[in-house]
Amino acid sequence: xxxxVEINFDGIVGPSxxxxxxxxxxxxxxxxxxxxxxxKAAALQGLTKMRGNLARFGHQGxxxxxxxxxxxxxxxxxxxxxxxxxxxxxxxxxxSSMWTANAATVSPAPDTADGRCHFTPANLVTMLHRGxxxxxxxxxxxxxxxxxxxxxxxxxxAPTFGDEGAANHMRLCESHGEAGVEVFVYGRPGGKFPxxxxxxxSRAVARLHGxxxxxxxxxEQNPIAIEAGAFHNDVVAVANEHVLFAHELAFADRQGAYDxxxxxxxxxxxxxxxxxxxxxxxxxxxxxxxxxxxxxxxxAGMALIVPDxxxxxxxxxxWCQQMLAGNGPIREVITVDVRQSMANGGGPAxxxxxxxxxxxxxxxxxxxxxAKADQMESIIAANWPEQIDPSDLGHEELTxxxxxARHKLLQALDLEELG
Length: 419
Ligand code: SUG
What we know:
Blueprint: E1 5-11, H1 27-31, H2 39-57, E2 61-63, H3 71-76, H4 86-93, E3 104-107, E4 117-121, H5 128-131, H6 134-144, E5 151-153, E6 169-172, E7 181-186, H7 199-208, E8 216-220, H8 223-228, E9 237-240, E10 243-247, H9 254-264, E11 269-273, H10 280-286, E12 292-295, E13 302-307, H11 308-312, H12 314-325, E14 330-336, H13 339-342, E15 352-357, H14 370-383, H15 396-412
Parallel strand pairs: 1-2, 4-5, 7-8, 10-11, 13-14
Antiparallel strand pairs: 1-15, 3-4, 6-7, 9-10, 12-13
Helix pairs in contact: 2-14, 14-15
Bound molecules: N~2~-(3-carboxypropanoyl)-L-arginine (SUG).
N~2~-(3-carboxypropanoyl)-L-arginine binds next to loops.
């Protein structure tokens, strides 16, 4: 008997976490360009979030930070650690793989033609610092989901067509173990900021995963939302089981989008936040929608895990209280402190990749328990740099500290083969 549950795989924040302002169209990243980052605090914040979800839901996975600096990236561009172009050096040091919602698109086994859970790593070609991730991400997916009777891991989609993974993908279903409808949200290029998800990539992923065409919906993101800083759909919308939680301005054709989802999945329930209650820019600043929308145990409805910033915004918090006072499907709002990630445009939902599968089929080296969380905590506390100034990147001492900190974690988790 297979027991399909939703497991969230969070990215452990790497020791090179820094603010270099590399992501055009990501307002938080631009705003914090040049600021001092606090990698140890960042990784501990991420770990606290994971511990909370492990206690609440009983399952939690993780992916390891990728090897940084990526010397092959610099060499391929004819650059060096001391390069005159700080953006290239910063790209080679980027800890952006922490945002595992961009690691891959995942189609759980009940949705696919061959009955396996399919993964396509995101090529992330729009940004140099993110485009380097996928081969190393795939190495982790190949290990974690090596059981080929239950999982299939593809290569990334060929470049030209940008693919940003699960951040632009939602799944509607009665329960995680039942067949679902997969919703792909893409952007149309031509605006002030890049549209990072291309329609062709979404369609290719759906084909590669063997999804039934009548159980796929392709929707255009609202160009107004992209211009306002919603560089991924998960900045303005999130779905769980039969519920879609979205900002009124999330989709180019709002009613058309809801109709298309309803045609494929009639039980859809939309919880929409009007712009008059929470204006788009405030939704993007507080990341209300970059929430983990999760099913609580014991049929107790759903919980929305939002960043602390939501509680600090009067309008957003008022809206949450009003929602809880009604009798909608979301029964609880939980706040978490992921400020270090937020300052680079990554909220609670960016930090996790959802995989609906049987945990018994996953390599246990990627599954968290309390003892491992304690072990991770002491390694991070002892080895992650306290702070990084972008101008420190490339300096020998920091470089060695970053390499050795990651190694200690790989060693402790018996994952040294990730090098
Ligand atoms: O790709 N930030 C990430 C944030 C990703 C958030 N993910 C989701 N919405 N799912 C990005 O823009 C900032 C890096 C820097 O500026 O150093 C960065 O890459």
